[in-house]
Amino acid sequence: MKVVIAGGGAVGTFIAGELQGAGHEVHIIEQDGDRVERMLAVGEPPGATWHVADACEVSSLRAIGLTDVDVVAAVTGDDEDNLVTSLLAKQEFAVPRVVARVNNPKNEWLFNENWGVDVAVSTPHLLTALVEEAVSVGSLVRLLSFEGGRASLIEVTLAGDSRATDREIVDLDFPRDSTVVAVLRHDRVIVPRGDTLLQAGDEVLVLVTAESIDDVRDILTGA
Prior knowledge:
It is a single chain. With about 220 residues, the protein is of the alpha/beta class. The protein folds into two domains: about 1-120, NAD(P)-binding Rossmann-like Domain (Rossmann fold, 3-Layer(aba) Sandwich), CATH 3.40.50; about 135-220, Alpha-Beta Plaits (2-Layer Sandwich). The chain has six helices and eleven strands. A six-stranded parallel beta sheet has the order 3-2-1-4-5-6, sandwiched between helices. β2 (about 25-30), α2 and β3 (about 50) form a beta-alpha-beta unit. The radius of gyration is 20 Å and the shape is elongated.
């Protein structure tokens, strides 16, 4: 997979290293030539290709070769730059997958398909959700949103009195546009099947649409 990361700061460099280590072809776009020189001097991240360029310019993206890129990740510290890069990647180069970092949570509403963003990652909102997840039993927590909020990854820690407790997934009649993607139990990850028996204390991760989230909430949190 060919990945282009816009932003060579700490976040972009870490992501590039992880992807490069997983065997992907990674390119990093960074405007600060001095930083690029420093990173090249120490060989970080190993194997990644650095480009001194402005990711908000079509000519720069074309020169780097966005026409055959699988994923663009716009992760600079500036929301405006991330939005412009996302829009160009999607509209000018038809990149299949565009992921964008949200720095200011108040701007999250902008990060949608109108700006070419497939997945928006807001660190403050994600941290809030993870804090809620740690302390909330029997409540639905939204972890991530996709496609401008039309799809979400949610988590529910089953309470003892939930009607989903001690029942198999197949018997719970989940909506067709929802999918149980994982069950976390006692530090184990269970890949769910129809006959998976849910237990009190299970952390159930479900991919839902805006239309199905209320039904899924009722199934997992209703008594």
